[in-house]
Amino acid sequence: MFRQIGPTEILLILGVVLLLFGGRKLPELARGSGRALRIFKSEVKELNDGDDKRDDADVAAASDPTVRPDQVADDLTVRPEPVRRDSTPEQG
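Now predict its structure.
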């Protein structure tokens, strides 16, 4: 569908950008794009570092349980309540 972009197409795109923004705005546009790219890269790096730290914390928590299994079993035991016989069903 699309073919590769050659040098002619790149020059055409640069010419259109120059006409749209003018010679004075191009350095500002380049600086702004560079800042945006730098911020994006730092945010991606923070996300990746945060995932590694979270994975390390999960492994540490799994290897050092603070609750013993017998404690969990006592907490999960269901104790039935006694049935009240206060009211008698109507017989009919």
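The two ends are 81 Å apart (CA to CA).
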